[in-house]
Specification:
Elements: E1 3-9, E2 13-20, E3 25-32, E4 44-45, H1 47-63, E5 72-79, E6 85-87, E7 97-98, H2 106-116, H3 118-124, H4 133-143, H5 145-150, E8 153-155, H6 157-166, E9 171-172, H7 173-177, E10 182-183, E11 188-189, H8 191-196, E12 207-208, E13 213-216, H9 219-225, E14 232-234, E15 237-238, H10 239-246, E16 255-259, E17 263-269, E18 281-284, E19 291-297, H11 301-311, H12 317-322, E20 335-337, E21 355-357, H13 365-389, E22 396-400, H14 407-417, E23 420-424, H15 429-441, H16 448-455, E24 458-462, H17 466-498
Parallel strand pairs: 1-5, 5-14, 5-15, 9-12, 16-22, 22-23
Antiparallel strand pairs: 1-2, 2-3, 4-7, 6-8, 10-11, 13-14, 16-17, 17-19, 18-19, 20-21, 23-24
Bound molecules: adenosine-5'-diphosphate and 5-O-phosphono-D-xylulose (5SP).
Residues 10-13, 259-261, 301, 304-305, 317-318, 321, 401-403, 405-406, 409 line the site of adenosine-5'-diphosphate (ADP).
Length: 499
């Protein structure tokens, strides 16, 4: 039976999925790569690590007994968003990629706001934030003029991988929207933004739809990984847009929660004129012509990852998270805020840092683990509150990503958010979404909706417990007070460290 491959270029690892025409996942593989944080606020990766890891993951996939790569007809991508890959005339990276969670660009964000004001939101439907691509380009323009002058084109992470696999450069609309250089109404690179900031139009890659076929695999790449050179390669999209289709979130009453390195609360937007005035991100979808909105916690899985690396390096995630059961709701009076690399929603604040509040000598490590996962979930409640304040209501949410694997955490999500939480048989939403793009692109399905019916299967449902909802609501009110009380202190700490 014919099959497709979804390549999910995450922040912590690339995940590859082999999926057949019925939507069955035949085999998966994953290869991790490092993240460099040379200074506070910096977050970079070497694009060559992505290429090596994608190759290694596909080769490993092909070695699995259940995988027959000769059956692969199409391949597509899901990618970490916003990262700047600046390319030389030879189309090779001029410097490490500056990632979505790199917040060195506060001065450039201020420059954008001062120069363009409200007009910027009218054009892009988003406010400028440190994580988006335009401020990163302006940072290179100012701090590394030699790299800016030598640049032939920029690409986003998964677009660079696609380029290396096919020799064809392009960017799909869902990732182009996240550069905040796209004119949302006209669906083209904004001449006003490019002219205002002296960005040559030639730097911007050609725009494509997620489902467009860019060609077939480069024969050398195909031979190196054991795929047929006839495999059709489709544009693919931003990981959160892919996660949404991969979870079947295709209607405005549906909500998606994603716990990867970042955390995301996302919904489908039927009206192309909607704006949240920059409070939430509003981007093009991988469903051609459609949109979605979302709020982002910069360090969701990243907070847990940091905790594990620092305090429990020899434990696996499942054991670590399960240990929180020895604590109780509210972590025996311990609150954690996950602002380890600053925050995006609801606080667009690159300088805030995280905190544990209420440390008491009665507490144990289980309380700290519980506080971390509760704090990440409280930050999701902050985003949900932005939706609720704008009149949106949701009864349930579908949850995906590495953080959706723990039954304990899923029940905590239900109790803190007061929503029915649905987990999926395959929690790799972005990877499944990428596979769905290839399946729709190949014409196997007439629409993403038809494909989702076949590819997406629910696993379990977690219902809010009224008593815990009330208890968590009291803790949430206190959590909400931590940001205004701590930002002058953490900003002062950063300043002292930098001086
Ligand atoms: N068994 C688990 N239970 C809960 N959380 C987990 C588990 N395994 C991994 N995680 C969390 O998921 C994160 C990775 O999620 P993933 O969706 O793969 O991220 P990304 O796409 O950013 O690479 C880890 O950093 C960790 O915080
Ligand atoms: O910046 C954003 C969304 O705006 C992040 O959500 C990135 O897209 C990274 O995703 P993960 O690696 O956490 O899946």
């Amino acid at each position: 039976m014919a099959a497709v491959i979804g390549v999910d270029l995450g922040t912590s690892a690339v995940k590859v999925l082999l999926v057949d025409e019925t939507g069955a996942t035949l085999a998966t593989g994953s290869t991790a790569y490092p993240l460099q944080q040379p200074k506070p606020g910096y977050s970079e990766q070497d694009p060559e690590d992505w290429i090596r890891s994608v190759k290694a993951a596909i080769i490993a996939l092909g070695k699995k007994p259940e995988a027959d790569l000769s059956q692969v007809a199409g391949l597509s991508f899901s990618g970490q968003m916003h990262g700047l890959v600046l390319l030389s005339a030879a189309m090779r990276p001029l410097r490490p990629a500056i990632l979505w969670n790199d917040t060195r660009t506060t001065a450039e964000v201020n420059q954008i706001n001062q120069t363009m004001g409200k007009r910027f939101i009218e054009i892009t439907r988003n406010r400028a934030l440190e994580g988006f691509t335009l401020p990163k380009l302006l940072w290179v323009q100012k701090h590394e003029p030699e790299n800016f002058a030598a640049a032939k084109m920029f690409l986003l992470p998964k677009d660079y991988v696609r380029y290396r696999m096919t020799g064809v450069a392009g960017i799909d609309y869902s990732d182009a929207a996240g550069t905040v250089m796209l004119d949302e109404d006209k669906r083209r690179w904004s001449p006003a933004i490019l002219a205002t900031f002296n960005i040559p139009a030639s730097l911007c890659p050609p725009l494509i739809e997620a489902t467009d076929c860019v060609g077939t695999l480069d024969p050398e790449f195909a031979a190196a990984v054991g795929l047929p050179k006839t495999v059709k390669v489709f544009g693919g999209g931003a990981d959160n847009a892919c996660g949404a289709v991969g979870a079947g979130v295709l209607h405005p009453d549906q909500l998606l929660l994603s716990i990867g390195t970042s955390g995301v609360v996302l919904t489908y937007e039927p009206d192309s004129k909607t704006t949240y005035n920059g409070k939430l991100h509003y981007f093009d979808h991988v469903v051609p012509g459609q949109h979605y909105s979302m709020g982002v916690t910069l360090a969701a899985g990243h907070s847990l990852n940091w905790f594990k690396k620092t305090f429990a390096p020899d434990e696996d995630f499942a054991t670590l998270v399960a240990s929180a059961a020895a604590s109780r709701p509210g972590a025996n009076g311990l609150l954690f805020t996950p602002y380890l690399v600053g925050e995006r929603t609801p606080y667009a604040d690159a300088k805030i840092r995280g905190s544990f509040i209420g440390i008491d000598s009665r507490q144990t490590r289980a309380d700290f683990v519980r506080a971390v996962i509760e704090g990440i979930t409280f930050s999701f409640r902050d985003v949900l509150a932005v939706y609720q304040d704008s009149g949106r209501t949701f009864k349930s949410a579908i949850t995906i990503g590495g953080g959706s694997q723990s039954p304990l955490w899923l029940q905590i999500q239900a109790d803190i958010l007061n929503l029915k939480i649905v987990s999926l048989k395959n929690n790799q939403g972005p990877g499944i979404g990428a596979a769905m793009i290839a399946a729709v692109g190949l014409g196997w399905f007439a629409s993403f909706e038809a494909c989702a019916k076949q590819f997406v299967e629910e696993k379990a449902t977690y219902v809010p417990d009224r008593k815990q909802v009330e208890r968590y609501t009291r803790y949430y009110k206190l959590y909400h007070d931590v940001y205004p009380a701590t930002w002058p202190i953490t900003a002062g700490l950063l300043q002292t460290e930098e001086s």
